[in-house]
Design a protein that fits this description.
mainly beta, 5-stranded antiparallel β-sheet, 1% helix
Amino acid sequence: MHRRRFLTAAGLAGTGVLAGCAGRSSSDAPDTPTDAAADLRVESVAEGFTHPWSLAFLPDDGVLVTERPGELSLLDRSTGAVQSIDGVPTVDARGQGGLLDVALGPAFAETDLVYLTYAAANDAGATTTHVGRARLDREAARLEGFDVLHAATPFVDSTGHYGSRLAFDADDRLYVTVGDRQFKNFGPDHVAQRLDSELGVVLRLEADGSIPDDNPFVDEPAASDAIYSYGHRNPQGLTVHPETGALFESEYGEQDGDEINVLEPGANYGWPVADDGCTYGEGEPIGVAHEDRSDVVAPIHSWPCGSGGFPPGGMTIYAGEAFPEWRGDLFVGGLASRSIAHLSLDGEAVTGVERLLTDRDQRIRTVAEEPETGFFYAAVDAADAPILRITPA
């Protein structure tokens, strides 16, 4: 076991106001900064992580941390001690690839099953997003019996836009986001608009990797049985609403055009035939507005071309006690924006947006809620990165 230095230095989280934009079920969200947003204490639980990507809280003081180069670590939240976990699959860590999401399986207390997504290559060197599972042996500090459940098709010669987040619903169905792998043919033949491709989609699997009988395209011979929704660019946030069960998803736009969506089975979310973003450099529109097509679903919130965007990472809907005024709201890690977005929700409508931690100048890959306390944890995306804990001041 090795130990990363435990830090107790703390500071106040800065706030900044972010203008709202049109969405599926809301008008322009007004600016709604709150007094509580300034009353945050931020501390580093541990440091020295290499591009941490995801956090999964164990039912004790542990939290699993994935690091993109291919390491899985177990962090003790009370002491800051960090232990490396063996048995991780071989990953392709070029570009945006590597070891990505981690989630505990259903009934983890009985099964000890842990799920991972990661980029891996075939014999020809092409890569794709994989999802697999293994049993976590805490005593031996290793994953036992790792099993690949699904590899998105096709493998392609690209190192970008893998997705990829995991979420389980109340029926123990497993959702996996897969990016469009940076294909630039912005039209109806784009991979994200093709049902015979598992790129630019959200997949739905049973916990064992098999296909649910009621998946939306199981009766279409030319479509992938695993697809749940499509028309996505690079979805890197996914969370289930703790009360309604609604599935919230975030994805990166091209230049701006970043989105928050609520997923529906079989729905087309538009990329790239309907989008709020524009092309890099030229700033030209991509496709048409979502409202101009009846066959696509618009985001509940977006950052359109010219807004500066908010490249959104991992996210959570808050359900805890530490910040009661925020219960039911959505919190999203921001990379280029170097902040956390707090989106106030009324059902599935976004009523206001603000940015937190703007004074720290840190890329936030993901934000998660500690179940026992309701404190926030955040993974900073850097080569020598801390895991942050955010509590009331």
